[in-house]
Amino acid sequence: MTSPTGPRASGYGAAAAPAVGDPLQAALALRSQGRLQEALDVLSGQGEFSADVYTLRGDILAELERWTDAAGSYYAATVKAPQNLYARSHLGACLHRLGRWEEAAEAFQLVLKADPHRDPIRLQLAGCLLRLNRLEPALDCFDQCWSDAAQRAALFGKGITLQLLRRFDEAEIAYERVLALDGKAEEALANLVAMSMEVFDLDRVQRYSRRLLAINGDSVPALQGLTLVAIERGEMATAAQYFSKLVELAPELLRPSRDTSDEVIEYRVSRKAIDRLKEFMQVRPAPAAARRS
Amino acid sequence: MENSVTFDAGLEDGATFRFPVTWSYISSAPAPKTVSKASPLPLLAPEPVSPKMEPPAAVPVLVPVKKPVEPPAPKADAGTEAKWEMVIPKMARPVTARPRALQAAAPVSVKEEQPAKTDPQSPTEISFYADSEASFVPQRWKVWGLVAAVVVVGFAIVWVRPGSQTASRNDTAPAAAGTWNRRTTFVVGAKDPRDLVVYSGSDGLKNYRMEFSWTPDPRGVGWIFRATDSANYYASKIRLLQAGTLSLEHFAVARGLEGTHSRKVITLGRTNDQVSVRMDATGPAFTLYLQGSPADYWTDERFDTGSLGFFEDRGERPLVQAVRFTLFKKTGLQTVVTSLQ
A144 and A122 in contact (C-beta within 8 Å)? Predict the structure, then answer.
């Protein structure tokens, strides 16, 4: 009581009828052996290929992390077969990798139009919209996520979008919900510290920094937060304790920079404050290399 | 308190604390259990629409030796490679006990391309009054006729049986492809035992689709999947909370320990006598559909393969009918229509 048979291992439709010298089958075999470049060579050459060949080429190129070429191959697959959601979603992922947010967003939107239940795609689309500073559509995307698997990421995304929209109270609620689901979401706490810094709410900075430090004792945002709170409150011994750890961990991060990104909140520690902190620290001379730098 | 540090020369003139706002969490850790090992794009690649996992849109249910309907999209090309096999339900079902269960078996007819359109309320019991308006034969005659037929059939069975053992074996062969195995287990810390009713034809499988109709009740129905043994499996349960409102939950039992239950409340909008439940297990992703619409999606990669079946806590028999499995085997698709009776 059986009917058509054929190899199903590949997942590529055109492989249904293997033929002698079928480049698709040969490439699949080589790929399964980890011989990616050879598999790619089999699929290269002049002439028109099927959508399956372009899709497989895209997969192999993506495995080789040749994102631009992979995007090109997936694009060719979508031209051949506009309903190939697999190729289109991977095209979006490659474009996302390449930082081509607008085009990536377009690819993801087309996938969602055909299959609106795919939250992983929706999250990636929302990520692109965030990059494009289209905050309201991004918020809509996060709100539309429905599955358990996407819940944390969607809540986090909602928090970040609300934070960027300066809707801090709502953002804080969203982040707290993320933390209720994932108590070790360091990035949520780091963003809460940043958000508290933006309104210069020292109590909140201290509270969230402590929570962050409890998760990760080497967290730079937490140590920065606790240092600045102590400096602002004149508790220089405490500040020196945290600052000394910061200097050990990431001195390069503390140097002045020209980063003027809107998403970075900066706090300058003056030379005078540094001098006072030094009084509480037993300072060793810096190595010669560090001085030259 | 004294601190001994190597003071960076670049900090002599002051320091800058930066608090960047970042969102790598969205792409890197959407769910702690989710890791797509085989994904060519480790962080950003979406879950691919795997053609071999996706059964064809129009499934020729229970029509053996018939190609699946040509899929409209290329992703369903795998359907042309499908191997269909009908597995006859193993257990004899009383006609009147579960009339709706018979509706699952009804599509055996080749004409039944759309079994869902069968009127769920249509009578499936043998009726003497099926064509009473056109028939002038007295009812008593019909009864006698039926009794005579039963007697004749009984004689025929007794007569033919000794010499037809080979044929009998052949007839029962498909049924042996899948049987229900009941095992009683104890989850660590639980007071009551749990009965696992495992479908043996699904041993060692990775991808499959479960479908059944459930009569909503507060006791609910629980099913298991990717069960490697009685101490390691995934489970889901659906229960009626109040009219039109259902509770969905899923959890894992690993090494006999039951993990936390992920719960969700779903409102169906109106009261339903029957709820069609479908669950797709595709790699580490699981999607639950109610009445044809997706209701829950989650990922878990602890168990790669394993059997499927149902579970019963405290001996509560689930009210399920029209049980159907689509098993994605290496050799092709296998569709199984069976009964939990």
Answer: yes
